[in-house]
């Protein structure tokens, strides 16, 4: 019960900060005031503030209280921070930063995977690809398999820091994948681009894998631009990943 109260309070304050209710550099209300506003004890507020400090949203200190930090100091690899940002409204700046990060990390990871992937690594990426294809043809959770595909690539390079980054990137990647699935036929058109990355990794062709990854990320960028231009409601990470409807006719391998 205490954990649920803590979680709800953390979500309320986190979203309020991300939404700009408390401006960067401003002092948040005292613990007693926040507790009264939110209907929780000062102890709960104190623990929530500690969580917000760990996520880089606020800082605390004697005589200065709790102050909101600028967005540049937030922990953008924290799933809660990404989720709150998704719910209060994704911005072009956020999506630009996300796509630029992908261009920096994923092509290099695909090159490493082509050089170092084991048979087991490739089998896991193949399984994720097969899940994506099945979700397109028969309906289902495409995003879950898409995420497994990209995380599998990050692991397949057998660089512990890159693999760890894959865990940190999961919420950010899911944001990109959710947006891509909003465009009609977006997943079906993206599938051959994923296949090209996988084929290059299987062929032990690092340069081809890197180029294919760049092409796939560029396709995702175009999908996101089209979704933004359509002014459709953007997905919320608080909800389960949207499921695709079955497609008529099978896709080529």
Give an overview of the whole structure.
With 253 residues, the chain is mainly α. It has 10 helices and 2 strands. Strands 1-2 form a two-stranded antiparallel sheet. A hairpin with a 3-residue loop joins strand 1 and strand 2. Helix 1 (2-18) crosses helix 4 (79-88), helix 5 packs across helix 8 (160-181) and helix 5 (92-116) runs antiparallel to helix 10. It is elongated and about 60 Å long.
Secondary-structure map with pairings?
Layout (H helix, E strand, L loop, with lengths): L1 H17 L12 H8 L3 H13 L3 E4 L3 E4 L10 H10 L3 H25 L2 H20 L3 H15 L3 H22 L4 H17 L3 H25 L23
Antiparallel strand pairs: 1-2
Helix pairs in contact: 1-3, 1-4, 2-3, 4-8, 5-7, 5-8, 5-9, 5-10, 6-7, 6-9, 7-8, 8-10, 9-10
Entry keywords:
single chain, mainly alpha, Arc Repressor Mutant, subunit A, Four Helix Bundle (Hemerythrin (Met), subunit A), 10 helices, 68% helix
